[in-house]
Design the sequence.
């Protein structure tokens, strides 16, 4: 519950402040957001499986974001940034789908 | 539950102490996630086109735009060229039209289909004992033509007026009248003529000329120079049946 409130507060804050993203961060922000979403869905699934661990969630969240950003950075340096970020998004999308499917099975028993 | 260590177990725990540091971290991270999510959505909706595009995409877009610019510049050059051609054609046509209308005016005055005005003479024939013969009037007309007359008309005493053109003929009528192009004019006759007044007056006054001949018949010719003479009678052009222009 607190987590959902924090998410909403963040969204409202972002809409309210409307900051401009520095150009250096612009390629990484979308990938980081997708990686964080993957971590969040993983956390929800773990919660429903009753194996949720605070510390693990924080570590997985941060490492997800960092690794995703690192991959994109590496791709940009190698000249395949576009393709590599597409690949990262696909992998993370597949994981999100898997997590959502598990959550769905928990919630609806189907 | 580090925060509870210095409190008694029964003490009321403040709400911000109930969470472990990991839980606080989770709240912060989720808040951050929501924040970046909102920022990213806002940025993608506000400028979806170029600010978020990658370098190679930008290079490709720039290249496309340059190729397009070159094409459009070529189009502009071609269109300006055709505009120039059309404009010069228009000017040529305008000049040709002006020339043609000027020629039409000149020819109309020569053919007697247009009224004209300008400096010239009025020549008045007053009959004496004998009426004015048609041949005298014809002499006068020829003399005036020879002296550079450009347009002429002859009017009788009853204000009937006939334009004198190349095909005009003069016949003696009954009772001192004059038949000009089929119309009967009564005396006295007046010829209004456009041309150089001094030359035409000299031509009429030469010894043995028109003035002298009419005076010999007992008549009188009054020649007046005028600044502005109106030749307003028109000749009805005859449609050509046989002659065709050669061009």
Sequence:
């Amino acid at each position: 519950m607190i987590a959902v409130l924090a998410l909403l507060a963040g969204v409202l804050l972002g809409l309210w402040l409307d900051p401009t993203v520095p150009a250096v961060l612009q390629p990484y922000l979308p990938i980081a957001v997708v990686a964080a979403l993957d971590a969040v869905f993983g956390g929800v699934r773990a919660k429903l499986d009753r194996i949720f661990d605070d510390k693990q969630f924080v570590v997985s969240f941060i490492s997800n974001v960092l690794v995703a950003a690192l991959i994109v950075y590496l791709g940009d340096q190698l000249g395949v940034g576009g393709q590599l970020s597409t690949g990262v998004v696909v992998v993370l999308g597949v994981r999100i789908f898997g997590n959502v499917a598990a959550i769905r099975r928990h919630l609806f028993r189907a | 539950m580090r925060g509870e260590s210095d409190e008694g177990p029964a003490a009321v725990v403040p709400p911000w102490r109930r969470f472990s540091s990991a839980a606080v971290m989770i709240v912060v991270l989720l808040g951050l996630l929501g924040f970046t999510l909102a920022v990213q959505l806002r940025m993608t909706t506000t400028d979806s086109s170029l600010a978020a595009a990658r370098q190679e995409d930008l290079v490709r877009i720039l290249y496309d735009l340059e190729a397009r610019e070159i094409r459009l510049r070529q189009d502009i050059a071609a269109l300006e060229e055709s505009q120039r051609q059309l404009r010069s054609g228009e000017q040529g046509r305008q000049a040709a039209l002006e020339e043609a209308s000027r020629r039409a005016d000149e020819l109309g005055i020569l053919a007697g289909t247009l009224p004209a005005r300008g400096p010239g003479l009025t020549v008045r024939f007053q009959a004496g004992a004998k009426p004015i013969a048609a041949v005298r009037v014809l002499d006068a007309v020829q003399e005036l033509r020879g002296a550079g007359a450009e347009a002429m008309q002859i009017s009788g005493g009853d204000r009937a007026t006939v334009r004198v053109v190349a095909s005009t003929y003069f016949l003696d009528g009954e009772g001192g009248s004059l038949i000009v192009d089929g119309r009967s004019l009564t005396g006295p006759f007046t010829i209004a003529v456009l041309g150089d007044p001094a030359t035409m007056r000299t031509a009429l006054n030469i010894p043995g000329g028109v003035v002298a001949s009419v005076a010999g018949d007992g008549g009188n010719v009054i020649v007046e120079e005028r600044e502005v003479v109106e030749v307003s009678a028109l000749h009805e052009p005859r449609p050509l049946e046989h002659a065709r222009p050669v061009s």
Notes: Chain A has one domain: 24-108. Residues 24-108 of chain A form one domain.
